[in-house]
């Protein structure tokens, strides 16, 4: 328990130091080594489907789910499991998951 409180105190100090330095340099641009988030499953599914020219009904029938389920996944009403996202992209749309991720990052207008 004591180790936990010491750790929490150290983390608070580190975070406050980062906030102070961030406030001192507001015009700093993010470095290229900064992490880039992976797109959400909804964005990946919509991108891959539109690239292949499938409708939601065709995609859902090929994967064996209801069209409503796929529509909810793509509209981000429900979060699909990652194994469903990967299976749909690789088995139905015949794309590599890394191709879909790069496509979403490079062509955000396609999923709008």
CATH topology value of the domain at 41-111: 434 Repressor (Amino-terminal Domain)
CATH class of the domain at 41-111: Mainly Alpha
Q: Which of globular, elongated, flat, extended, rod-shaped describes the shape?
A: elongated
Catalogue the unreliable spans. Answer: none
Residue-averaged pLDDT, rounded? 82
Distance N to C terminus: 49 Å
In the CATH hierarchy, the architecture of the domain at 41-111 is: Orthogonal Bundle
**Given the structure, what is the number of helices?**
6
Care to describe what's here?
The protein contains six helices and no strands. The protein is an all-alpha fold and 112 residues long. The chain has a domain at 41-111: lambda repressor-like DNA-binding domains (434 Repressor (Amino-terminal Domain)). The longest helix has 23 residues, at 2-24. It is elongated and about 55 Å long.
Briefly say what this structure is.
The chain is an all-alpha fold.
Question: How are the SSEs ordered, and which strands pair?
Answer:
Layout: H1 2-24, H2 41-52, H3 56-63, H4 67-74, H5 82-92, H6 97-106
Helix pairs in contact: 2-5, 2-6, 3-4
Structural key phrases:
about 110 residues; mainly alpha; 6 helices; elongated
């Amino acid at each position: 328990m004591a180790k936990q409180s010491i750790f929490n105190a150290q983390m608070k100090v580190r975070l406050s130091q980062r906030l102070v330095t961030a406030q001192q340099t507001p015009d700093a641009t993010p470095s290229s080594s900064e992490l880039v988030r992976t797109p959400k499953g909804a964005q990946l599914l919509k991108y891959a489907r539109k690239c292949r020219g499938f409708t939601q009904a065709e995609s859902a029938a090929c994967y064996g789910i209801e069209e409503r389920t796929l529509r909810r996944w793509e509209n981000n009403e429900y979060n699909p499991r990652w194994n469903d996202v990967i299976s749909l992209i690789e088995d139905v749309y015949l794309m590599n998951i890394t191709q879909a991720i790069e496509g979403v990052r490079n062509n955000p207008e396609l999923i709008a």
